[in-house]
Each structure stands twice: as C-alpha cells, then as structure tokens.
Automatic annotation (TrEMBL):
It is found in: Membrane. The keyword Iron does not apply. This is EGF-like domain-containing protein. The lineage of its organism: Eukaryota, Metazoa, Ecdysozoa, Arthropoda, Hexapoda. It comes from Phlebotomus papatasi (Sandfly). It is a single-pass type I membrane protein. GO terms for cellular component: membrane. Disulfide bonds join C126-C135, C138-C152, C177-C186, C356-C365. GO terms for molecular function: calcium ion binding. Keywords: Calcium, Disulfide bond, EGF-like domain, Glycoprotein, Laminin EGF-like domain, Membrane, Repeat, Signal, Transmembrane, Transmembrane helix.
C-alpha cells in the first residue's frame, strides 16, 4: 500500500510533493516504525520491548514471568534447573533433593538422596531408605539399588520381617519371615498355624493334643483350627498348649515372665459347655494339685481382666473343643531379663526375674500394692 504514516495516497509523489510534480525519490514500502523507541508500545512496566518489522514483542524481564503485556509477576532471578522457585519473600530456588547452587545445577554427589549444605560430596542425611558416605546403599528394611533411578524400596513383609536379619533380602526384597509366617511377603501362616498375617495380622498355633511353644517373641495360640492326622480320622478335640520359652541356644528361660491375653471379641466359649483353663507351670491335669496352679478360667460370662501372668517360666493352657463355632484366640508375650526382653514398666530384680517395680503389681504394673504385702521369689505376692 502506498502512502505515509497518516493515510494512503495514490502514489508516493502525491504524498511528498504538494505541487503534484514527479518526486526525485520514493519508498518501495512504508518505513518501519520503532514502537519501542518511540514509546508507542503497551508492554508491561517489568517487560522489555523488542522491535520487529511492522510490530514489536514484549518479554518479561529476568526475574519475572507472564505474557509481557498484561502481566509480569515476580519470580526467581535464576532459572531453577533442578528445583522450583520458593516465591515470596526471598524468590530463591528451592533445589530438589541431591542438588545445590543458586540455580540448582550442581549435583551434591549423594545419588539424589541427601542435601549437602556444607560442601559437595558431603551428604547431610541420607533419605529414601539409603545409607553410606554417599547414600550409595539401601538401608536395613529396604531393598533395591540406591545408585539407580528406581532407588530403594521399603520391604513389604506385612510387619513380620525379622529385623535382626535386615527384614528382607537387600537385592530381591524377599522377606525374612518370623511370627510363624512364610511367603515372599510373609503373607501366609506356617504349617500348624492359622490366621491372616497380612497387614500385621496374627497367626495362631492350632489345637494340638500336646503343643509345645518355645519362641520368645509375641506368639498366638487358638482353637479355631485343630490338628488332623495325615492318616485320616477326626480332628483333635483335647487342646493342650505348653509354653516353655528357650533361648536361641536352646536353654530354658525358667526365670521368664509369660503374659497371656485374650481379647473379648476373640473368645466364644460357652460357660455351660466348657472354658479355657490357664495354669502357671506344668500341672498334673489328672490330680488335685492343679488347682493351686490355676491362674484363670475364661468363658463368655467372664467379665474380669483378660490378661494373666505366669512367673514360673512355664504357662499351660487347656481347652476341650465344644460345639462347632465355639473357640478362642489368644496372644502371649515372654519377658526375660537374660534375653533382654524385660520391657517397661517391668524391671529386673536381683534374682534376674522380670517383675513390676516396687509398690506396683498386676499384668501391666498399674495396680498399687496394698501395704503389708511382699513379692515372693516367684514374682507373686505374700501377705506379711
């Protein structure tokens, strides 16, 4: 189009020569207007105007972000390469784990598992289940490769991994199971046990005619499943559990304290038909001496505390299977000074027994002892 900055004309001569005479020079096209230089632009005050032929561009200045015309919002002055802008009031880069520097471009040398506030290569604290000088190893309770993108993952053992062994294999993630469980993730109970160990559930040692339990850790017993001979026949109906804790070397823990607990919802035994009998020691179930060793008799009508303690280092539970659908599940724990499992509030006395602190008694050491009583060597009370 021909013309000047004001309007179009038929030819350049008409625009430049009012006498309508032929001009000695002319433009091939209208010259460009520098809107930026002439202040004819509408860029934001925090934007830079860049002239182009026939137009112009608006770009927010460094440290601001937006379309350059209607908006330029303050941001970090540096481009956060491995991080993000923290915003007001400092507007500084917040680096991703394992990176440092003003623009988060410097690798800490910690395999992206730690900060390095003091110096590059000096890892502050390894995270993401890693350990080592440069966070190069998976820590106990995890598996994988700390130096790879995948990194380390926590062991998935449903809460039954053996911590003494590292919970699971550091490379494969296969669990080192305990609590009478087995499987890659400790998701099933061992033979002769029943229950659902997933999500921290328990396994219970089934009804046996003479079941021996020697483990120190927290264990379960129950009558909801009975032993059945591989040669056929009916299931066992006379249930007897004898708890005699032993050390890892096989020695009996005769000074141990054994605590048995039955949750109310885990007990369905009619008092008319039967009950659960708990003894301190190894009673003669055919004679009369058993009564002196009887700790408790549990059935549905029992409203007393559901926790009892054996102080002789042995605990016996007897139950005769009743009608279908009846039975119980119980948990027991072993507290021993020699094995280091005497847990608060219990304390170790001079005889090496795990007992309540002076002045208290009861399964949880929460009952104040009456004046005029003393603790016997077995851990019980004697009136004085």
């Amino acid at each position: 189009m021909q013309g000047d900055f004001n309007r179009s004309t038929e030819n350049c001569a008409a625009a430049l020569n009012t006498t309508q005479q032929e001009a000695e020079w002319a433009y091939a096209q209208c010259p460009d207007v520098d809107e930026c230089g002439l202040g004819l632009h509408d860029c934001h005050r925090e934007a830079k105007c860049t002239n182009t032929h026939g137009s112009y561009n608006c770009h927010c200045r460094r440290g601001f972000i937006g379309d350059g015309r209607t908006s330029c919002v303050r941001t970090c002055f540096e481009t956060c390469i491995h991080g993000y802008c923290a915003g007001a009031p400092d507007y500084k880069c917040q680096c991703n784990l394992g990176w440092t520097g003003g623009d988060c471009s410097i690798n800490c040398g910690c395999n992206n598992h730690s900060t390095c506030s003091e110096a590059v290569g000096k890892c502050d604290e390894c995270q993401n289940w890693t350990e080592g000088e440069f966070c190069e190893r998976c820590s106990a309770g995890s598996f994988g490769n700390a130096t790879s993108i995948i990194g380390c993952q926590p062991c998935d053992c449903n809460g039954h991994g053996n911590e003494a062994l590292g919970v699971c294999d550091v490379q494969t993630g296969e669990c080192f199971c305990q609590d009478n469980t087995e499987g890659i993730h400790c998701e099933v109970c061992n033979r002769e046990f029943y229950g659902d160990p997933r999500d921290g559930g328990q396994c219970f040692f089934q009804c046996e005619p003479r079941g021996m339990l020697t483990h120190i850790g927290r264990q379960g017993i129950g009558s909801m499943q009975s032993h059945k001979s591989i040669y056929g026949g009916s299931e066992t109906r006379e249930c007897l559990w004898i708890i005699r804790p032993r050390t890892s070397g096989g020695s009996l823990l005769n000074t141990s304290l054994i605590q048995l607990h039955i949750n109310r919802e885990d007990l369905n035994v009619s008092c008319v038909d039967n009950a659960v009998y708990v003894y301190d020691g190894l009673p003669d179930l055919t004679g009369n001496t058993q009564q002196s060793q009887l700790l408790a008799v549990f059935c549905n009508q029992d409203s007393t505390a559901m926790t009892v303690e054996a102080h002789t280092g042995h605990l016996t539970v007897y139950y005769r299977q009743g009608p279908t659908g009846q039975g119980f599940n119980a948990m027991y724990s072993v507290f021993s000074c020699s094995s280091g499992t005497c847990q608060p509030p219990h304390v170790c006395n001079d005889q090496g027994k795990c007992v309540c602190p002076p002045g208290f008694t009861g399964p949880h050491c929460a009952i104040e002892r009456c004046p005029g009583t003393a603790v016997s060597p077995s851990g019980g009370e004697n009136v004085i």
